[in-house]
Amino acid sequence: MSTPFEPVVFRPLPRPLKPFPQETESSFLNRLATANAIPVQRLKQPSRWLTSRLDPIDRLSVLSGQPRTAIQYAIPHWENKAWNVSNRPLALTPRWACRRCVARRTGTPEPPVMVWRSKYHDQVCTPHRLWIGRAVENPGRQFDLIDLPDVVQAQQRHYRLLRRHGPAVITACYEHCSSFWHSLFQRGYRLSDRAERLRQMSTRDHHVRPWEPQRYAAVYPEIVEAMSLYASPHWRRLAQSAHQFGLFRAEFNRRLPQENALRTTARQWFLIELMRIAHRIERSIEAAELKALVAHHQAEAAATEPCTKGCSSIRYIQDHGSRRRPST
Hints:
Layout: H1 25-36, H2 40-44, H3 56-64, H4 68-74, E1 92-96, H5 99-106, E2 114-118, E3 124-125, E4 130-131, E5 143-144, H6 149-165, H7 167-186, H8 192-201, H9 213-230, H10 233-240, H11 245-255, H12 264-304, H13 313-320
Antiparallel strand pairs: 1-2, 3-4, 4-5
Helix pairs in contact: 3-4, 6-7, 6-9, 7-9, 7-12, 8-9, 10-11, 10-12
């Protein structure tokens, strides 16, 4: 009896390439195509009429000449999975890797590498002191922070808060504190530290514009300081209490003192917003915890659901009959 015909669709490329940690599949394919001077479409579909039984990991392993375990470790997420969308606590999204990290690992900063990063928690490459986060549209817009050590220290503190309180709490704190500070500056709030950072990041022939990443880096230390306050359950409780709000306000002013008092309606907005932020963060945390609980019960239900594709009902009762379903 003859064996079935299995065509070899994917072959090792002449120039092997190692994947970058947390690199996206499309970025790795583009780098493979560039290194071997072939169109990327030929890597995705080498033949128009022959199909391969290899899964995406095995395909990349064959093309790049790397072991399957190396591909699994470096590229843990795949673009065609529904859970890759930005609705999880870390909100992993494709973003440009630090160009200095790319040069150190690959020997050249070109071509650029796209990796999975959190859009809330990865703003600075601390080893190379480079801003890689918000508003960076390409690796060329990543800028040096060697003269701004407080911004690098803010990222390190951000990571410590993340380890201490968890992604659900810190994600909510960053999202609401960031929007609060930018709204505060639009209402005439002045901060000399922010102005000094903007001055250091500006040049004689170029001033920082409102949409450039330097604007976000200049206020990042203040955002992290506010996050540390709202991440504490104690201070969050005081901020939501009408009778003890004065204690929270005093602590906020101690950590982030106002240089010039707000005037007219901005003053009242500032006090109300301090209380509203605590309520919004609390609701976001509760929603994230509920979502995680639902996902956990769905995973348990999927693991214990009866087999309907030719499985014996007697065998299912023997395996699962004595187990009680977890209460919801």
